[in-house]
Write a structure and sequence with these properties.
3-stranded antiparallel sheet; mainly alpha; 268 residues
Length: 268
């Protein structure tokens, strides 16, 4: 177990609170832990995966137990700062719930924990989404970490393959494992969320017609959905690799990628 994985595991105050709670309980099921800490289950599962990767907890059949290493770590941190775990988190919980809703985090965690079961409906939705893009003759814009790609209607069929290879490489770099199913989940989730644009396109044109307002709505939707898709996918990447890659990309997307995409839209 590397020191970097332990450091990443304790870099969040929320994860420290989880460890502190487990230190007193020793073991708890996920539902009870969620209720005690006022953390939604999708967010809790995400944090637990990071802690498990750091060797601080063990998870089996829905029960979470703190390890000896976890007890030692949280005991030392608590002795250094008595106040770090005593603050109320009601407002923080509301903010996290809002972030979960906006960034499709709940959906991403659901896909991650269901494995093959969650992949089939995603595949069907992806096929439907690509069909709608072809039907309305819309170019597909997919944002990936630190870059974005445009697929015209003649390249829609190859876009899943290109994205799959990309996510397979990203997961291999971060985990040193070829996560075949996980890369497929990332690809399908990204395409599913981006495909919501086709629905927005149809509704905008039907309700507003071809007007300046509808064009503004469509351009904004194209950028927002492509950004949200990769933020959601970064949750999947973090979950499968046990590293908080999600927060890094969220910060990057807000400070760099969104302005770049807005500039791209204005130049069209």
């Amino acid at each position: 177990m590397s020191l970097s994985s332990i450091y990443l595991a304790i870099s969040s105050e929320r994860r420290l609170r989880i460890l502190s709670c487990l230190r007193s309980l020793r073991c708890a099921n996920i539902e009870d832990l969620s209720s005690r800490l006022k953390i939604s289950i999708p967010s809790l599962l995400y944090e637990l995966k990071i802690l498990q990767h750091g060797g601080l907890i063990e998870i089996e059949d829905g029960t979470v137990c703190i390890t000896d290493r976890g007890v030692n770590v949280i005991s030392k941190i608590s002795s250094l700062d008595q106040d770090i775990l005593s603050k109320t988190r009601t407002e923080e919980s509301k903010i996290h719930d809002m972030i979960n809703l906006v960034t499709f985090r709940t959906l991403a965690i659901y896909v991650a924990v269901t494995g093959y079961v969650g992949t089939l409906p995603l595949a069907l939705l992806t096929f439907l989404g690509l069909f709608l893009f072809y039907r309305f003759r819309i170019n597909l814009i997919v944002l990936v970490p630190f870059a974005f790609h445009t697929f015209n209607i003649y390249l829609l069929a190859v876009s899943p393959v290109v994205l799959y290879v990309y996510f397979l490489l990203v997961l291999w770099i971060l985990s040193r494992k070829f996560l075949v199913v996980e890369a497929l989940q990332c690809t399908l989730l990204a395409l599913c969320i981006v495909s919501l644009y086709a629905i927005v396109y149809y509704l905008s044109v039907s309700l507003l017609g071809i007007s300046t307002m509808s064009l503004m709505v469509l351009e904004a939707s194209k950028l927002i959905l492509s950004t949200l898709s990769i933020i959601s996918v970064s949750t999947l990447i973090s979950y499968h690799c046990g590293r908080p890659f999600e927060s890094v990309f969220l910060l990057t997307s807000l400070t760099l990628l969104i302005p770049c995409l807005l500039t791209y839209a204005l130049m069209r």
